[in-house]
User: Fold this.
Amino acid sequence: MKNYIEAIERISLCPNFEQGELDIDSLVSDLNLSEEMITVLKSKDSSQMESILGSQHKIVCMLVPAKDDDDNEDESEDDKSDEEQSESSSLVAVSF
Amino acid sequence: MTNTTEGSLVCVGTGIQIGAQLTPVARRCIEEADVVFMSVSTHIMEEWVSSMNSDVRNLQSYYEKGLPRNKTYKSMVDVVVHEVECGKKVCLALYGHPGMFAIVAHKAIEKTREIGFKARMEPGISAEDCLIADLGLDPGTCGIQQFEATQFMLYQRLIDPSAYLLLWQIGVAGDLTLTSRTPNKKSLSILLELLFEIYPESHQVVLYEARTTPLTQSRVEYLSLNELSKAQLHDYTTLVIPPCEVMKKNTDIEKRLKLIFT
Assistant:
């Protein structure tokens, strides 16, 4: 996996990869990549790369759309029972 | 007052595309940290970040199925700040720009400073930066307004139809439970109702997803607004709505300015 990452990183840093002007063989010759991976890189087969390296999107959401009127109220939720927390989880106000 | 122990926090961004958009200073921060917490977009990017430091901890496991994301974010902040309190030099590495739609970084910095430790953020390359490059937009031309899609729906915003409008996380627009990763047709139709108050149904818009590896292409899909409900949407899809009106000059202000500068 480490060598695959290194190959992707090297290709990422080559602006002419898009134009097909990159000699993939020489760029990754020292990395001992499998024939399958080299073929994937040459053909820019992203779906095959996904299956080999796992480049499917993970959850990256990291914001909340609305704010509580009172942040302290939310803080006090830490002391609630699981049941109460479950009820409050569908509230519109979602800041912490 | 700054705490006398060595603990500190720096928040960095990995950029969107693996290998290409990590700034030199961000890489240095990751390499030199005692512990790195990461939340990035793909497994391959996780492996990439992990290759830069021997103690990289993945925050992805905090996204428990069914757990509201605000609870998830709070847990993430707590675990990051705890390591700072233990005297560690902590790096929080997030996908894109660490401060762009990333409440965890902002909260972690705030909390770290509150308890007397040093905390800072290094800028990174965000999805917005990629969008500007891929679509050839210039915020200086007619302006860009941008909102998280659900927030856009929940609050009464004043939208300028002569500027671009970007709606982030369009694929989870209207999800008040903060648990979904897939679109809800009913909430999407409410969003469309709101947009049709401003834009014609036939208005051309763009669905955008920045590419994450050099082997993939960014998604730049043109469609009309009324086709949105049939489109494939993800939680990382951005809706780009170009202006539907030309900018109107404020002639009164222009006259007053001319009096000053002529």
Observations:
- The two ends of chain A are 38 Å apart (CA to CA).
